[in-house]
Design goal:
Layout: H1 7-32, H2 45-51, H3 57-73, H4 85-158, H5 167-199, E1 206-209, H6 210-220, H7 222-227, E2 231-236, E3 246-249, H8 251-267, E4 274-282, E5 285-292, H9 324-334, E6 338-343, E7 349-356
Parallel strand pairs: 2-4
Antiparallel strand pairs: 1-3, 4-5, 5-7, 6-7
Helix pairs in contact: 1-2, 3-4, 4-5, 5-9, 6-8, 8-9
Length: 360
């Protein structure tokens, strides 16, 4: 069922028809008032191009046939003249040119309409994405308050502020606190991801020794590693002695990257496994690699791991929100560095990043 045209659309259509008709009549008068030797039919290209995109398909071809016939008719009207082969060929070429012009005009009009539709779809998609981002960011921000309240309440119970508790109750409350802090970390990561996407990541750069930072973060995740009976080992790839790896970076943001990669490696390790952190200075780049001996990664996943909300389909034991690696990529990219993942032999995965070397 066709959509009725609005009065404004009808007004524009009438105006287009009048303009096409006026220009067409001017060319007809000029064509039939000049000697036959002068082919004025090429001027029909003007109203034909103007009609492209304004008239429907049958109207365009009706107009094309009309002006092609008028071009040929001018051989006999208004005055009968002796027709020669050059005159006839010139008229035929002019008519053919008008037909080709109509074809190209319709094709260009179709391209223009397709581009307009794609632009409208893209704009609608961008608006929807903006609404979705605002909704998620607002929801995550509003959820932080009750989660913080729950953490404070559980901590008060653990401290005995509401009376004594047994060891079993303390273990349960400690598990609840850990779960709430995990939820809080997820909400903060979600807020940071959307904030970085919209406003960009603001860095506070300062000289930083990656070796010290890795050691500090390994100590922070040590309780998590102990709970899973996983050992963390820090190695220098080219020396048996501890060396400094200097970069110019934002300490807090790199802590988040290392925390994410270390916890990710611990969660994907089996009990009794080792997580190795390799420090590799290489001239213009300082490299950190974190190796686990888990189930490894499927080859088709490697190009998607650092996408937002991607959780993977491998047999690795733990899965997260799909935001941690995306945030890590945001941070490393903002530092002009690179981050990647690969499988290692015979099993396990390697997550690494490298940053430009800084000379203090």
């Amino acid at each position: 069922m066709s959509t009725p045209l609005s009065p404004l659309s009808l007004g524009w259509r009438r105006r287009d028809f009048c303009a096409i008709g006026f220009v067409l009549m001017m060319v007809i008068v000029l064509e039939f008032s000049t000697p036959v030797d002068y082919v004025m039919g090429y001027l029909y290209i003007g109203p034909l191009l103007f009609a492209s995109g304004r008239l429907p398909h049958p109207g365009i071809w009706g107009l094309t046939i009309l002006i092609a016939l008028l071009t040929l008719l001018n051989l006999w009207l208004p005055n009968q003249a002796e027709i020669t082969w050059p005159m006839l060929i010139n008229r035929l070429i002019a008519a053919l040119s008008l037909i080709v012009t109509a074809m190209l005009g319709e094709r260009n009009a179709a391209y223009a309409q397709a581009i307009a539709r794609q632009q409208a779809q893209l704009q609608a998609k961008m608006q929807l994405e903006g609404i979705r981002s605002d909704f998620i960011a607002t929801l995550a921000h509003d959820l932080k308050t009750p989660v913080l309240g729950a953490i404070s309440t559980v901590e008060a119970f653990i401290r005995g502020e509401f009376g004594g508790i047994s060891n079993i109750q303390k273990q349960v409350l400690t598990t609840m606190e850990r779960s709430h802090r995990t939820s809080l970390g997820l909400l903060e990561t979600l807020l940071d991801v959307y904030h970085n996407d919209i406003q960009g990541l603001q860095l506070h750069l300062e000289p930083l020794d990656l070796t010290l930072l890795v050691e500090d973060m390994a100590n922070q995740v040590a309780p998590i590693a102990r709970d899973r009976q996983v050992q963390i080992i820090i190695r220098d790839a080219h020396s048996e002695f501890r060396r400094s790896l200097w970069v110019k970076a934002d300490t807090l943001q790199l802590q988040r990257v290392l925390m994410n990669l270390l916890v990710n490696a611990i969660n994907h390790s089996r009990r009794g496994d080792q997580v190795e952190v390799w420090l590799e200075p290489s001239g213009s780049q300082q490299c950190v690699k974190i190796l686990d001996r888990g189930a490894g990664l499927k080859p088709e996943e490697l190009s998607h791991l650092f996408q937002r909300f991607y959780q993977g389909k491998s047999d690795r034991q733990a899965q997260g929100s799909g935001l941690g690696l995306y945030l890590a990529r945001q941070i490393i990219t903002a530092h002009q560095g690179t981050i990647w993942a690969e499988n290692q032999t015979p099993k396990g995965a390697i997550f690494g990043f490298q940053l430009p070397t800084y000379s203090p």
